Amino acid sequence: MTGNPEEKTRPLQINARLAVGGAFLLLLVIALIAMSLFQQKPSGDNERPLDPDRAAAAEHFIRFIERTDYASAYAMLGSRFQQRFSQESFQGTWEGFLARTGPLQMRNKARAGLDDSLEAVVYTMQFRDMALDLRLLIDTTGRVSDFAFDTAHPQALAQMRSQASHYVERETWVGEMRLPGLLTSPARMQQTSAVILMHEAGFQDRDQTIGNGKPFRDLAYGLAARGIAVLRYQKRPLSAEAATLNDEYVDDAVAAINLLRQIPGIDPARIYIAGYGLGGSVAPLVAERDGNIAGLILLAADARPAQTTLASRLSSPRLPAGYWENLARYDPVATARLVGRPLLLIQGDRDSQVTVNNDLARWEAGLANCGCITSKRYATIDHSLLPVGIQDGSAASPPVFHQLPAQVIDDIAAWIEPSPAAQ
After folding, report:
1. Has residue 227 been placed in a domain?
2. Chain centroid, CA 104 distance in Å
């Protein structure tokens, strides 16, 4: 980090209402940043709960900006804003702003604030050269009706920096194919538990990107902030020469286990596998191969032979016949019963692909006598781990950014590291 952000952050207010044309807005933004003449108004932040719908819409907007997807961010602006400013001037505003502040390095979670007596969603953001609060006004349809930058709130800034120091992330590679991976871990590790993430079927990146969401990244950050290390990596692509569950999943997962056992600070006896979809179904195979896995976390995992449910979830189901034969022979419940490791089942009631009646019930019945399972159900979650009903797909109601529910992360963390009272 260059310079002292507090020294560089003088009273500043940049508000979209100030300009009446795109070019003028861009010039005004740059001029205001350079001169910093406007007086800071009180932050207006308070402790009342943040409206979840407004918070979700704000997160959607912010992540588009972070990805420099200005077209999608512009589409979330209210109609009055769009009538005054073109997409080009909107993009120019942000690009000119970042040229002065430097890139965004970190931000905290949204909080509630007041802006001219209206409810606002506020983010504290640390850019390379200064720290600022971004205040978004979200209307009842989920559109951004206005935004402003203020000097960062001191307490929120201190909290953000403290939280960011709680975990670190480093690049690594997994397996003989050197699959690109990320290890997200607490900043200080001592006999730390660790989780390896295994993907759903098909080609997947290391974040398990689903539409606009990245549930594996959410899980990694959430668990690391709770003192648990997480390793995620890009999934190996299938081919005609390598088309079995061992090729697709098990070999790389075992390599990931061995990698973690060599890292100082990670407890080699407390490594868990968390698999999503088919990755969860295959997780018992990894435990069978390794023999010393601490436990399994199955998120929306098939209990039925996967060839009966998988075709609808693959973007290209034209796989070699041997692959489908391998799936047909594999019984995930019987394998889990054989290995007998502690197992946490994460299941959404609204999942129409891996269902409560066809899959969760089979897991529970098949493992009823082992005393090794814990089940967690979520009334509004579907197979993508997104609460159903947040988006309706209409142009008037922009979809909410996919984010793994915090309750899922809390439940996984509590299962791995139960409190003394729960033991």
Report:
1. yes
2. 18
d(CA 320, CA 350): 32
In tens, the pLDDT along 309-321 reads 676 666 555 677 7
Query: What does the pLDDT look like over 58-105, one tens digit per residue?
Result: 888 988 888 888 999 999 999 988 988 899 999 998 898 888 888 887
Q: Is residue 158 part of a domain?
A: no
Query: Do the Cβ atoms of 147 and 93 come closer than 8 Å?
Result: no
Q: How many alpha carbons lie under 13 Å from residue 382 in its C-beta half-sphere?
A: 11
Of the candidates 422, 391, 388, 421, which has an alpha carbon nearest to the alpha carbon of residue 405? 388
300, 346 Cβ separation under 8 angstroms: yes
Whether the CB-CB separation of 66 and 90 falls below 8 Å is answered with no
Residue 174 and residue 77 share a domain: no
Q: What is the pLDDT of residues 195-217, one digit of tens each?
A: 999 999 878 899 888 876 788 98
Q: How far is CA 14 from CA 25, 146, 163, 267, in A?
A: 10, 11, 27, 49
Q: Cβ neighbours of residue 148 under 8 Å, at least 6 residues apart? A: 13, 14, 15, 16, 115, 134, 135
With CA atoms as reference, report the closest residue to 62 among 76, 79, 80: 76
- Over residues 281-288, the mean pLDDT reads 96
**Residue 169 shares a structural domain with residue 267:** yes
